[in-house]
Amino acid sequence: MGITVAGLTFDYKQKQVLKDIGFTLNDGEMLGLLGPNGAGKSTLLKCLNRILTATAGVVRIDGKDIAGLKQRELARHLGYVPQSTHAGFPLSVFDAVLIGRTPYVHFKITEKDREIAMRMLALLDLEPMAFRKFNELSGGERQRVFIARALAQEPRVILLDEPTSYLDLKHQLETLARIREIVKHKRICAIMAIHDLNLAYRYCDQVVLLKDGRICSHGKPGEALTEEQVSHVYGVEANIFNGDGIPYIVASEARQQVAN
Hints:
Order of helices and strands: EEEHEEHEHHHEHEHEEHHEE
Number of helices: 9
Distance between the termini: 50 Å
Structural class: alpha/beta
Strand order of the largest sheet: 6-7-8-3-9-10
Radius of gyration: 19 Å
CATH topology: Rossmann fold
Number of domains: 1
Helix content: 25-40%
CATH architecture: 3-Layer(aba) Sandwich
Shape: globular
CATH class: Alpha Beta
């Protein structure tokens, strides 16, 4: 089925941060959350994951309101990859990914849990460093470990907050391609906050363009990321070109604000 968000609103210290956010994402689809800094992308992900409590609105996964789920059950429905990649404790990479199996562990870790953790490491090209210390990895390597850990939860929906921010160009493309492949194969959903419009255009089935906590545009990338919408939201001159069948967005100088 997928995930449905309706009327999601979030206020912080008497300031409205998100207003009436709504969309539906079906199984096997990726959605990109786009917008300038401060648009509400990370806040929206945290409201979906109940890290923050929405002021209003409802989030349903496969028709089930997540507000009624206990934390352990919620973790079986939602996997979350945060923006921060602080080194943390000196766990091995394998153990860091194995933490993703916590929602399923009752008395002890099983062989199945270990197999799933190793499979996720393999998917993200992390097998060679499985027994290195997590706190010795680069920021990009740690980012891929967080993604592997979230996938090890076998969630219905995976939330990713700027998953390519610490990755070089090669690993950006490889990681997003593999996430997309997993989403399609496993028939799950992915919601990804991302700054790169062209990566969103290339890998996402839907995009939501946010400005000041509100949706300015929503739909397929070709429909929602028009030159006019990009220019309006980001305050730049935007042009869309087509290269070898792949559209790409080029932004030039910022639009000049003319005083009345």
